[in-house]
Specification:
The chain has helices spanning 2-7, 9-17, 22-58, 72-99, 103-107, 118-153, 179-194, 245-249, 272-278, 347-357, 369-376, 378-412, 414-422, 427-459, 472-498, 502-508; strands at 164-170, 199-205, 216-221, 235-241, 253-256, 267-271, 288-291, 299-305, 320-324, 332-339, 364-368. By secondary structure, the protein is α+β, with helices and mostly antiparallel strands. A six-stranded mixed beta barrel has the order 3-4-9-6-8-7. The radius of gyration is 35 Å and the shape is elongated.
């Protein structure tokens, strides 16, 4: 809008000379700006509605707390944004041009000067340099988020998630009152699952990894907590598991053994983190733990299981303990099934089996373990993709602005280029002159953008798992991409300037 208003300075000068007031000229420019903004806003809403429907079909299992509706609040926000953009895009150029409007300069001999004064395009250059800087900052942030996402996805979860189907079962206490009834139901359910074709193994636990669930207890070793006497006991993640759970989930046993059918009480398996915390100088197998304060019996440690990323791939690994389910029967369990092929192909058989056993029970959260891991990365994927989208939009706007100012400056220098051609300049000289204008603008914007990107990276450090805010791949890649697009945006005006005919230009002069 600023470049367009500058080009129309002679027209505005003529209108002013014919009696139009400055208010009338501002009203004309504001009307045009509002019309353009309204068309853009309406088109954006329609395209956004269409794009939203398409995006939602690609996103599986969207969290229920995310509601994407185009209601009156959304429409109000769009109208306010359009009005604000129209006001800024109309008033700022109008005030800038009309304030400097000199009737003698636009109508008299001064209008025929060979080149445009630098002051006329200084604000354009500043805006475009700022757009380039913002685009680079967002590109760098998107690159860092993308690299961090790749690093997070490469983190070992501590289990073998492939070909594992999971779901939850909750037994109503009104129907399954006693622990014996609950045990009998789950034992029968697992036995029927193991009899299905393509099932390698099946087991269950009260809490599955990547489920956003936690049950904690305070435990102490028989020898006392290591460290100072007043050391506080940590919260121990506690899970009640059936025999075969470690084998089905692919959790390695570092030492000791897994649960057996005969293990009914007073035995536990700890993870590596808890073993290192309670017994840093020796083996945990054969040691004993109990609830803090002496409540409850001593529990013998029979094995040490490998650490798993229970709270997400980038979550903290905390001390954990596994208790035989038969020792503390619960009404809810998470079922895990390792299959020979695609686990989802087993879903109809599972539903049919459960319906035969108890048709009133719902099957909750049927999903593969790989899907559970993917859902745990939803927020990271969301802000990574959003930042990348914003970066692309900012990049497109910056390149549009750069193309506009280069085309404007090249158009203002038409007479100058004609004189240069008449004095012997070559077409490549004109191309280089136009491209240099774009490179100078880009250099300023890139310099500011790199500094801003580094500061943004430092501020985002907690989210950059395994990635440095000064990652050279991201810095060089984003800068190279921006430079390539800058050259592309400058090329079209440069080619057009190189095709000028000196005779035609001087004859028009």
């Amino acid at each position: 809008m600023l470049a367009r208003t500058l080009v129309r300075a002679p027209e505005l000068g003529l209108r002013r000379a014919l009696g139009a007031s400055r208010l009338q000229l501002v009203r004309q420019l504001m009307t045009e700006s509002l019309l353009l903004a309204s068309i853009g806003g309406a088109t954006g809403v329609l395209l956004g509605r269409w794009a939203l429907d398409g995006v939602l079909t690609l996103v599986e299992d969207l969290p229920p707390w995310i509601q994407l509706q185009m209601d009156w609040r959304f429409v109000s926000f769009i109208c306010a944004a359009v009005a604000l953009c129209a006001a800024v895009a109309g008033l700022v150029p109008a005030g800038s041009v009309l304030r400097r409007l000199d009737l003698r300069g636009v109508l008299g001999p001064g209008a025929q000067r060979a080149t445009a004064p630098g002051s006329r395009v200084s604000s354009l250059r500043a805006l475009v340099a700022g757009e380039i800087a913002l685009a680079l900052v967002l590109l760098l942030a998107a690159g860092l988020f993308g690299r961090a996402l790749v690093r997070v996805m490469q983190i070992e979860p501590g289990i073998r998630p492939e070909r594992v189907l999971t779901y939850g079962l909750l037994l109503p206490e009104a129907k399954y009152r006693s622990s014996a009834e609950r045990l009998a139901f789950f034992d029968q359910h697992l036995a029927r699952l193991r009899a299905l074709p393509d099932v390698q193994s099946a087991s269950a636990s009260t809490i599955l990894p990547f489920s956003d669930q936690h049950i904690g207890n305070f435990l102490e070793p028989e020898e006392g907590l290591p460290g100072s006497p007043d050391a506080s006991p940590p919260v121990i993640l506690t899970r009640m598991s059936f025999p075969g759970y470690f084998e089905t989930m692919g959790i390695p046993l570092r030492t000791g053994r897994s649960f057996r059918e005969a293990d009914r009480a007073n035995v536990v398996i700890v993870n590596e983190t808890m073993a290192r915390l309670f017994w840093p100088a020796g083996s945990a197998v054969g040691k004993r733990v109990r609830s803090v304060g002496g409540a409850g019996p001593w529990l013998d440690v029979i094995g040490v299981a490998g650490d798993i990323r229970h709270y997400g791939l980038e979550g903290e690994i905390r001390p954990g303990i596994y208790v035989p389910f038969h020792a503390m029967p619960q009404s809810f369990v998470g079922i895990v099934i390792r299959t020979n092929g695609d686990p989802l192909r087993l879903a109809p058989d599972v539903r049919s089996l459960l319906k035969e056993q108890d048709p009133t029970l719902p099957l909750a959260g049927l999903a593969t373990m790989e899907e559970r891991i993917g859902r745990s990365l939803f927020l990271r994927r969301a802000y990574s993709s959003m930042t990348a989208t914003f970066a692309l939009v900012a990049l497109a706007m910056a390149m549009t602005g750069l193309y506009g100012i280069i085309a404007y400056v090249a158009g203002q220098r038409t007479r100058e280029f004609g004189v240069r051609l008449a004095l012997g300049a070559q077409a490549r000289d004109l191309r280089q002159a136009v491209v240099r204008e774009g490179v100078r603008l880009a250099a300023v914007g890139i310099g500011i953008g790199i500094a801003g990107g580094i500061l943004a990276g430092l501020a985002l450090r907690p989210l950059l798992v395994g990635v440095s805010p000064l990652d050279p791949v991201v810095l060089l890649g984003a800068t190279a991409l921006l430079v390539a697009i800058v050259l592309g945006a400058s090329l079209a005006p440069a080619i057009r300037a190189a095709r000028l005919n000196a005779v035609d230009v001087l004859r028009a002069e």
